[in-house]
Design brief:
The protein is mainly alpha-helical and about 180 residues long. It has one domain: Serine Threonine Protein Phosphatase 5, Tetratricopeptide repeat (Alpha Horseshoe), CATH 1.25.40. The longest helix is centred in the first third of the chain and has 17 residues. The relative contact order is 0.07.
Length: about 180
């Protein structure tokens, strides 16, 4: 009887220690906490939660995207570029469009207009109706000296729903919208 009791205890303890703790959070739990902190402007804690989500799931594309956004907002451009690049490498096509667009914004902010134009173009290859990508690519083209390309992109952005740009073009260059 005592041997059966010992065997039962041994089996119970081995099962108990083999199980993950009940309080363990999933990558999604960490991501959700990070997102909540991010929305409320608590970027440091958001970054920590996104990092925990990534540690638990190294291909968590959304966590890389959002942590990249935290880095970008803090002007930690190289870290943002790294995370957006990782999102491009690990993500599905709809995430790649956003990652290329966001990486294009970082490149634009650092003055690398040619690389930004390339990333905005890549975003558009995944999501051809992304008006903001046309808008920002147009701005980058203007900064790079391509005013004809800038106007084409502005016109496309206006046609796709950038109402402020459409209003501006209607006032100053209505012929472009015909």
């Amino acid at each position: 009887m005592q041997n059966i009791f010992k065997a039962g205890i041994t089996v119970f303890l081995s099962m108990l220690f083999a199980m993950p703790p009940l309080y363990a959070k999933s990558p999604k739990d960490y991501f959700d906490s990070g997102y909540s902190h991010h929305l409320s402007g608590r970027y440091e804690s958001a970054e920590k939660y996104y990092t925990k989500a990534i540690r638990k799931n190294p291909s968590y594309t959304q966590a890389y995207l959002m942590r990249g956004a935290v880095y970008h907002s803090r002007r930690e451009y190289q870290l943002a570029l790294n995370d957006y690049t990782k999102s491009i490498e690990t993500g599905a096509d709809h995430f790649k469009a956003v990652a290329y667009y966001n990486r294009g914004l970082v490149l634009f902010d650092t003055g690398n207009y040619k690389a930004a134009i390339k990333d905005f173009s890549n975003a558009l290859s995944y999501s051809p109706k992304m008006a903001n990508a046309y808008l920002h690519r147009g701005i980058a083209k203007g900064r790079a000296g391509n005013s004809a390309g800038q106007l084409r992109d502005f016109t496309t952005a206006a046609r796709l729903g950038d109402f402020e740009l459409k209003k501006l073009l209607q006032q100053h260059a209505p012929h472009l919208l015909k």
